[in-house]
Amino acid sequence: MNSKTYIKGRGAQLNTPNKFFELSHQMREDFLEYCRLEGEEADKNKTEYLEVFPKTIVNKVDSPDVGMMYSLNPYQGCEHGCIYCYARNTHEYWGYSAGLDFERKILVKKNAPQLLEEKIKRKNWKTHPIVLSGNTDCYQPAEQQYAITRKCLEIFLRYRHPVGIITKNAWITRDLDILKELAQDNLVGVNISITSLKEDTRRILEPRTATIKRRLETVEVLSRNGIPVNVMLAPIIPAINSHEILPLAKAASQHGARSIGFTVVRLNGAIGQIFTDWVKKTLPDRADKILHQIQDCHGGTLNDSRYGLRTRGEGKIAQHIHTLIKIARQKYFKDKNFPQLNTTLHEVYKSGQMKLF
């Protein structure tokens, strides 16, 4: 890794052009050299929180292979900086880059709790689990300042509405009090993402996430308090973490997880360019091997949009991953299961009081 050109604490190492804009901004080498000679900072690498007020907050998920029908994202963009994140492309819809902008310009949806309450109180709303973080992590660093996720959980509890959570941040344990109450009525399920047992790998893949140790401790704490946890081994990246599937599954089971899920990495849209730039700077000795093996899983391309195949992959390498997952489930999760969430209570709590008849 070239420490002179590598931006510490970030996943992406550049801002890719926004496909919706005709013009783009580029950091030229001569400008960088000028800044170096003058002792100036060419890029301050600061995170910026931008408060926004959307008109809706609950999104219907039309993709048939995602595993959720509705999602809610309190924040757009994510400071965690995971290099592979599929959500990067959505930042372009807000006028930003899928690269560094995605990690440094975080849109904070301050009215999310109000919009959520209005949505689930509607007479025509049919109860179905809403997943926090279907796109960006609801427990990213911004949550410590704004607590929007906690406010949303309070609403889910008040109206006894089922909620799913996807995160890779130990900060979720702050809300253990609410989660325990939700779990008493089988109204919550948590998905913790763990991609490696090696801190060196975690640091370069997911620079601003919780450590592996803290994530495993989080799985244990949630499980011990009766909150069902599914560990997502996601994404599996050939030649980076594909050899860790069985150890990861074992650790997840030992810490109380009830199940595991997985996806094979895919690099759609701008993510292909962002990941390629990153891997050549970070892991130059095996960058070509990693890229070629990813392509092998997706019909020779980094960009795979085929429903049913895009997250599972195909070919020999993908099949090997599937086989290891099957073995892991049989070995470590044979007598465990992740429950279906309860959708029967919300209707009687929808008006704010129990129905008499």
Automatic annotation (TrEMBL):
What InterPro entries does its record include?
Answer: Elp3/MiaA/NifB-like_rSAM (IPR006638), MJ0683-like (IPR040086), rSAM (IPR007197), rSAM_sf (IPR058240)
Q: Does the record carry ATP-binding as a key word? A: no
State the coiled-coil residue ranges.
Answer: none
Supply the SMART domains for this chain. Answer: Elp3
Q: Which UniProt keywords apply?
A: Iron, Iron-sulfur, Metal-binding
Picking any one GO molecular function of the record gives: iron-sulfur cluster binding
Domain (Radical SAM core): residue spans on this chain? 64-301
User: What PANTHER family does its record include?
Assistant: SLR0285 PROTEIN
Concerning NCBIfam families, the annotation shows: rSAM_PA0069
Any idea what this protein is called? PA0069 family radical SAM protein
Question: What is the species of this protein?
Answer: Abyssalbus ytuae
